[in-house]
Amino acid sequence: MSVTIEPLVGLPEVSGGADLGELVARSHRLDEGDVVVLAQKIVSKAEGRVVRLDELEPSARATDLAGANGDPRHVEALLRESVRIVRTRRALVIAETRHGFVCASAGVDASNAPETGTLVLLPVDPDASARRIRDRLRELTGVSVAVIVSDSFGRPWRQGTTDIAIGVAGLAPLLDLRGTKDASGYELRSTQIAVADELAGAAELVMGKSAGVPGAVIRGYRTDGDGSAAELVMPPERDLFR
Amino acid sequence: MSVTIEPLVGLPEVSGGADLGELVARSHRLDEGDVVVLAQKIVSKAEGRVVRLDELEPSARATDLAGANGDPRHVEALLRESVRIVRTRRALVIAETRHGFVCASAGVDASNAPETGTLVLLPVDPDASARRIRDRLRELTGVSVAVIVSDSFGRPWRQGTTDIAIGVAGLAPLLDLRGTKDASGYELRSTQIAVADELAGAAELVMGKSAGVPGAVIRGYRTDGDGSAAELVMPPERDLFR
Question: Which of B2, B110, B190 is the closest to A5 by Cβ?
Fold first, then answer.
């Protein structure tokens, strides 16, 4: 009944073309039903989703948005990753990515980049990234695990970031309680629990941003179903906060 | 280095005046540094934060907001708990509570209420609730634990709820990384991690809404500092989403 979260340790620094499945399988024994959570940064680096600042030619819009405090090349990179600017304040730009995620800088980040002067972008398709790593782990170990690609996002109205799932394979990201009854027979209204986001946040507890732990393995959580992080994105027509 | 989440099982149904500290201490062995997470619902019930629908006289505003689909008495209850209506759509009202939390129905909930025809309200001061339970646990067991009161909140742009911390005692709810460097010496910009929210979400993974598990004990997470869930509320002047 209990759930255990173990840090993924012993992984090397990775660069484009790294076989993450092999690196995880080699560093950690996996059991059927485990949930492997990998930080977006290591997945993006393995996929070569890195740009050099000095190769970015800022548009007029990027220069305008960057203002006095921001780096127009960084803003140029995030604009290329965005479909919509949601809010701006000074150098902070909150944008919606092509995937439908709303986050600071459209997920474009200079921290933990492979070298100074580079930026790391989100994976093109984090669900596909999760699925590829899952398939590779099954190929190498013979066991079926779930894989989550996680990233740290801020939230409206609340301080601090929490890790959430931007890529999912091998588990249903939403636990659907619609139709189930509580102890007094009342139909539960809070109908769906974003368990993939809770798993990503739980993994963050052992990762520690600057400690070089790029992921975690969660054991004992009864996964079922299959699905994708795309299901976690609120459809625009239901969204009260667009 | 690993973190374990154990469900709190064996607690009875509680009503106003219940001694939650004693019930937890009796059902679970606690060690120094454990994090005890309790669902808001059980804490509210123990504090008698329950109202009867038939004792609520709906105001004109409540009747208007409830529209054709809602119960005006339920809306009356949530209006009394609110300082601001943030969004409405049909019977759904998202409101800001006196504590500064933005959530559906200002946290007023009919599911898992003690009996049909009643509503459960958020604790008046969930940080004080957490601190009382923490003090009582220390008194009874001699060990210092952290206590989190959790609730399931929806989020803009994302499907499903996650559990977050609405009351905290005995740990710093934000892990402050400002000034720390990543592996390449770059100063981390995503500066604060809302670990109390991640701990609440992790606890939810073993709670399961309708299974009668009102909390969890998290072991192996190195807590430090002290603080309150009030620190997790974004100050209005910094809030881009008011």
Answer: B2
